[in-house]
Amino acid sequence: MQAKAVAATDLNRQPSLPECAENDVNTQSSTVDSPNFQKDYRFWAIIIALCTVSLLSAAENTVVVTSLPTIVEKLGVGKNYVWITNVFFLTSAAVQPLCGQLSNLFGRRYLTLSIVAIYVIGSGICGGARNPAMLIAGRAVQGVGSGGINMIIDVIISDLVPLRQRGNYVAIILAVYGIGTTLGPWLGGAIVENTSWRWVFYINLPIGAVAFILLFLFLRVKWNKSTTAYERFRRLDYIGNGILIASTVSILIAFTWADVIYPWGSWHILVPLLVGVSGMVLFLVFEGSPFVIEPVMPLRMFNNRTAIIVYVITFLNSVQNYWSFFFVPIYFQAVQLSSPAQSGVQLLVFSLVGIPGAAPALVVLSKWGRYKPLHILGSALFTLGIGLFSIMNQNTSTAGWVWINIAAALGTSILTNTLLSPFQASLKEEDQAAATASWNFVRSFGNIWGVAISAAIFNSFTASYSWMVDDTRARASLTSGNSYSSATKAFVESFEEPIRQQIRTVFTLSLQKVFLIGVPFSGFIFLLTLLEKEIKLRTELKTEFGLEERESDNSTA
Fold first, then answer.
1. CB neighbour list of residue 232: distance below 8 Å, 6 or more residues apart
2. Is residue 133 within a helix (H) or strand (E), and if so which, with residue range?
């Protein structure tokens, strides 16, 4: 990975793909360990530390999703509930390119320790929140840490393991991640039912402390210390990062206000949306200009078909993931009338099927180096699952929704977890940190679009179907842009029949529309996978950020 400044003239060149990248994948030989691929106790200690960090991130993702309706109600967040999720995704996405650049300039160790500490601090702020503003601020801090965590795990694995074999070790971390996602939904429901919702966030404190200690003790990897801190800070792409962050914020503001505070056609929505999109275009132009010595997102990463296609698939898949799965707990609680704890148990289908399904896919990727068949299979299953989501209703049997969830979870897990390798394969080793950071950015940025657009669609349809409800108070809750926070078992059961049944019908129809509108997006992902070109996954490890040499190694040398 590149640790020294690159001349401006070099940045605008179109370097060729890695050697043999265009070779047919079938010409690959069997996997052979690179000579500098060391697997001593230090390597495994770092893997264990990364597993702990992934557990921290996994628990957060599923615990909050299950308990969010209750948190919104208890703290009186009202129409601003979308910010609890979106500000997390915003800061998570916005800092990832910057973290990739910082990891090159200042090494992996101190950046990793810093982002874990930031995440823990954010969790503490959320747990101690006394009002919606404090909770949202804590989620913003938490998002910074989460974005860094998601990015740095992939970067460190890329430093330690050749590309062809990374799937094996990502599968190990994914297995631990699966523990967090498996326990998370049940834990989130149990917490809000039996204790204070604040423990949804406080539970991150002990896990984060363990992760920090393990990383402090064992994450000791090389980095270029030949330049001063001042020189390294000068090489940061401040303008590029500023444009990217401002554009992301502007787009998020538009999505968060749309159909909640202002209609989609209002200038309050159109202006920030257009400013944000224009800012993204300006960012791309600026990153490709000769004035940037070390761009945060070098455009040379997108000079081949596979990189572009994988990037687009990653964005659309992230949109589709949250578009769909953000509302599955709503289906269980507002349509099936499950308690938060029960919906947590019902969500176990995703982790019990999705995670074990993704791990073998990663192993297959490492063994044969073929990612295109996995992408085709995963996107096809996901499209099928999303389509079947749109027919679920109050009368769907347990066996019915279980099989539907299995198809969707298995499909998206196979696809999502095998996208980074082909993106990295199309680029030189020196660009791996920037590539990993930009890939994680577009994945998090897609989450923002998925949550905001689907929430707007849900609010719009609940308002349009509210005429079916005879009760004035219930109808007001469904038309105020606040229908998400009302989509709980407690709210529905606070009314007598036939109002209760009418409310369930409104939620059912609205959710069906949310899922149905998402089907074309998933179908487009499937078509894009057919256009991918398979690139050979490298078996050699070339990095400036490998394990520090031991004293015994130096003495031998």
1. 105, 106
2. helix 132-160
Distance of alpha carbon 138 from alpha carbon 355, whole angstroms: 29
ω into 498 cis (within 30 of 0): yes
Tokens of 150: 């998601």
Do the beta carbons of residue 380 and residue 526 sit within 8 Å?
yes
Token code pair at residue 321: 């993931």
Distances (CA, A) of 367 to 10, 144, 425: 36, 35, 15
The pTM for the full model equals 0.78
- The domains of the chain are located at 39-236+296-545, 237-295
Q: Which of 397, 372, 433, 421 is nearest to 538 (CA)?
A: 421
Radius of gyration of the chain from Cα atoms?
A: 23
Confidence of residue 132 (pLDDT cuts 50, 70, 90): confident
Check: CB of residue 108 under 8 Å from CB of residue 223.
Answer: yes
- Model pLDDT, residue 1: 36
The conformation of residue 480, written as its DSSP 8-state character, comes to S
What is the rounded CA–CA span in Å between residue 136 and residue 151?
22
Is residue 76 within 8 Å of residue 120, measured between CB atoms? no
In contact, 11 and 292? CB cutoff 8 Å: yes
- Distance from C-alpha of 357 to C-alpha of 111, rounded to nearest angstrom: 32
SS3 content of the chain, % helix, strand, coil (to 5): 75, 0, 25
Distance CA 328, CA 507 (A): 12
Count how many residues are written for the chain.
557
- Residues 343 and 184: their CA atoms lie apart, in Å, by 11
Closest CA to 401 of 360, 345, 340: 345
Considering the domain 39-236+296-545, what is its CATH architecture? Answer: Up-down Bundle (1.20)
Strand partners, 262: 258
End-to-end CA distance of the chain: 24
The model's confidence at residue 37, banded by pLDDT at 50, 70 and 90, is low
Please name the residues in contact with 417: beta carbons below 8 A apart, sequence gap of 6 or more.
170, 174, 358, 361, 362
Token pair in block for residue 66 = 């299950």
* Chain segment 438-459, per-residue pLDDT in tens: 888 888 888 778 877 788 788 8
Helices (H), 426-482: 432-465, 472-479
Q: Please, how many CA atoms are within 13 Å of residue 345, restricted to the half-sphere of its CB?
A: 6
Return the ∠ at Cα 256 (arms to 125 and 391), rounded to 5°.
105
> CA-to-CA distance for 283 and 291, rounded, in angstroms?
13
Residue with tokens 């991640």: 177
What b/e readout covers 110-142, taking b as 16+ CB neighbours within 10 angstroms? ebbebbbebbbbbbbbbbebeebeebbbbbbbb
Residue 13's contacts (CB-CB under 8 Å, 6 or more residues apart) are 300
For residue 221, give the 3-state DSSP assignment: strand
What is the rounded CA–CA span in Å between residue 61 and residue 299?
Answer: 31
Say if residues 166 and 366 touch (Cβ distance below 8 Å). Answer: yes
